[in-house]
Automatic annotation (TrEMBL):
GO terms for cellular component: plasma membrane. Residues 148-289 form the Hemerythrin-like domain. It comes from the Bacteria. This is Cation-binding protein. It catalyses: oxidized coenzyme F420-(gamma-L-Glu)(n) + a quinol + H(+) = reduced coenzyme F420-(gamma-L-Glu)(n) + a quinone. SUPFAM superfamilies: FMN-binding split barrel. InterPro entries: F420H2_quin_Rdtase, Hemerythrin-like, Split_barrel_FMN-bd. It comes from Streptomyces nanshensis. GO terms for molecular function: coenzyme F420 binding; oxidoreductase activity. Belongs to the F420H(2)-dependent quinone reductase family.
Amino acid sequence: MPSAFQQSVIDEFRANAGKVGGPFAGSDLLLLTTTGARTGRPHTTPLGHVRDGERLLVVGSNLGAPHHPDWYHNLLAYPSVHVELGEQEFETIAVPAEGSRRDELFARVVAEAPGYAEYQAATDRTLPVVVLELPGPRTPASAVTSLADKLTEVHTWLRGQLAQVRAETEAHFAARTAHRGAGTPPPPGLGLQIRQRCLAFCQALEFHHTAEDGHMFPAMEGHHPRLRPVFERLREEHRSIAAVQSALAALLAGVAVAEPERFRAELARMTEQLTAHLAYEEAEILPLLADVPWPPTP
């Protein structure tokens, strides 16, 4: 829970489109809402940021304290975060920078906000630099007026995130092969970019399937009892996919993915099973949802 001072900053920020007074007058602030690593509850923190092209950089300075701030531990556990920036709000995936890239971005931050160098000098830990990608220009989205539209939207997002994780993983393995060919050490692990994106995908997939099993499928089965075998198959596929998801989650439990070859194999298994599952689900139940309004009517 935010301190009384933090809450006053949050309230002022939201009341004045991101502008605050007092010690933060003129500062570039954002509100970062993370999910508590231990509680699972949302936590909002006001943070300074530096804009770097189409991304925002925030630093886990904790005012130079010896430990990382709570919000940093939260985003390692739950990479999907909510950002409030002036009057703009968006969801993104928080990715801590690593190695030389972290050093380059930290230098970029210090050039604009020199106080962070003082915080770094006050502690032995390396201050993490977290990258928050800004949303790009969006093509006009198709209108979502039915539950079929909404389900299609969710499935499209899941497919896109999984494809991106696979592309980044294959790029990593291509780089490893190139390093071996050149006789240089390959990059260790898989990197936080892949970890954060895959973990966010796994958590969103689990939420989606839990909602289907707990709410959508029982309601639909009640109206269409003849399709019970379809829903039994979908639930069984959920259980099979959950087993792969658990294997991936175990590999992502640490900050570094220590078994890249196993991760790659589990990711391929996830792609095969989820692709077939989504196609079957869409073929069987989308027509039944075309006339169900979205958002639901009271």
